[in-house]
């Protein structure tokens, strides 16, 4: 871990002085900062970065693009961009969706203004590490009053035959009164088994009055140990509808956060998660109400198979001065094995009186009566369990507004269940 290696990387990519300096400052802070706090998850000895800043060679595992539709999309394999698609109409309207370094050339002022605005480099040790060492990324910019109703897709593949750290930064910025429908995938491809780390940050800057539907499906492989940070920063009357499917195979800690800075802003966070094998997944989902009459909702449902571990921490924080704010959360976990481990921790931090807040949390196993009923109708145990899981997660899935994301999450759930 040397400053010189980071400096050489910056020079090789012709990074502007402000970005090169930002990396150097972040590097200096790595050793002074603590790890993020993920309650009841012991991840301090995980390999979440080995101090390597490098790039992948162009992979042989490039997917087939013939099946992809004509909606806007960007596809990357490792650090390489292999496909970009944006209609002339959106380009003429000022929309930019491209890799990080092309965005530095096309809209340098946007990148400089908003990079690390949602996730500051000195937030914690892993944020500082990410800022110093991220090796690729993407930028999506939607100007004021531009509406994009078709899904804009960001597809980011981790090559399972490469041990290059998967340190990806995605920056999404929407202007005033813009509308965006965004679908994001992080997925491992290839038949390799190289162990790798992933440190991923997704920043969403929602301008005043903008409305964002953000759906994501995470399906990184068993060989990848991951830290995932997704955070929204919302202006007045802005809103983000989050829908996230956590379907990874390896160990994962994740922060899904929304900062409601603007009056009247809202964040609606829906999370579906499955843990299996000996996998450990710890998920912090947080909404912080700064603005008056801001609204934060968290709905999390998870299923644990075999010896898996899943922890949900739901955190609602209403800051002093956020009068009329509302913070609600629900976290529920279903265990399909006596060897499964789970926590569902509701945390409410209320610093203002004129507010509304509430929480619900539960952990349980499949109801024997439900299983008896289904099996008495001729279903085998595995099929009966799948139906119970579908019903349990369906309460969240039916609320996901993006059909493409909903269908893909269902496919991911079926795939995990069929591996048992």
TrEMBL record:
InterPro entries: Fe-S_cluster_assembly_SufBD (IPR055346), SUF_FeS_clus_asmbl_SufBD_core (IPR000825), SUF_FeS_clus_asmbl_SufBD_sf (IPR037284), SUF_FeS_clus_asmbl_SufD (IPR011542), SufBD_N (IPR045595). Residues 82-152 form the SUF system FeS cluster assembly SufBD N-terminal domain. Residues 162-392 form the SUF system FeS cluster assembly SufBD core domain. One of its GO terms (biological process) is iron-sulfur cluster assembly. Belongs to the iron-sulfur cluster assembly SufBD family. PANTHER family: PROTEIN ABCI7, CHLOROPLASTIC. This is Fe-S cluster assembly protein SufD. It comes from Streptococcus cuniculi. The gene is sufD.
């Amino acid at each position: 871990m040397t400053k010189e290696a980071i400096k050489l990387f910056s020079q090789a990519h012709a990074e502007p002085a402000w970005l090169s300096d930002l990396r150097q400052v972040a590097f200096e802070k790595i050793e002074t900062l603590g790890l993020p706090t993920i309650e009841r998850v012991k991840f301090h000895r995980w390999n979440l970065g080995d101090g390597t800043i490098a790039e992948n060679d162009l992979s042989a595992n490039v997917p087939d693009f013939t099946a992809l539709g004509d909606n806007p999309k960007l596809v990357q394999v490792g650090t390489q961009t292999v496909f970009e698609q944006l209609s002339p109409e959106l380009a003429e309207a000022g929309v930019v969706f491209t890799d990080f370094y092309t965005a530095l050339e096309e809209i340098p002022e946007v990148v400089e203004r908003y990079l690390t605005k949602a996730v500051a480099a000195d937030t914690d040790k892993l944020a500082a590490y990410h800022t110093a060492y991220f090796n690729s990324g993407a930028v999506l910019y939607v100007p004021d009053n531009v509406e994009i109703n078709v899904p804009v897709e960001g597809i980011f593949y981790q090559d399972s035959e490469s041990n290059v750290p998967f340190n990806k930064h995605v920056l999404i910025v929407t202007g005033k009164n813009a509308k965006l429908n965004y679908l994001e995938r992080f997925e491992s491809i290839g038949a390799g088994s190289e162990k790798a780390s992933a440190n991923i940050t997704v920043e969403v800057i929602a301008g005043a009055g903008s409305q964002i539907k953000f759906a994501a499906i995470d399906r990184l492989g068993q060989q990848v140990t991951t830290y995932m940070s997704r955070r929204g920063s919302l202006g007045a009357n802005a809103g983000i509808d989050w829908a996230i499917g956590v379907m990874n195979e390896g160990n994962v800690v994740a922060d899904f956060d929304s900062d409601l800075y603007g009056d009247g802003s809202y964040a609606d966070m829906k999370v579906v998660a499955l843990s299996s094998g000996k996998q450990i997944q710890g998920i912090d989902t947080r909404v912080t109400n700064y603005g008056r009459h801001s609204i934060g909702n968290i709905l999390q449902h998870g299923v644990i198979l075999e010896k898996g571990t899943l922890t949900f921490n739901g955190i609602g924080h209403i800051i002093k001065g956020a009068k009329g704010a509302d913070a609600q959360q629900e976290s529920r976990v279903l265990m399909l094995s006596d060897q499964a481990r789970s926590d569902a921790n509701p945390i409410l931090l209320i610093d203002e009186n004129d507010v509304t807040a509430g929480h619900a949390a539960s952990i349980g196993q499949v109801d024997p009566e439900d299983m008896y009923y289904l099996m008495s109708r001729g279903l085998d145990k595995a099929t009966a369990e799948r139906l119970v899981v579908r019903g349990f997660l369906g309460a969240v899935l039916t609320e996901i507004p993006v059909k493409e994301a909903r269908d893909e999450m269902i496919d991911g759930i079926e795939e995990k269940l069929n591996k048992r």
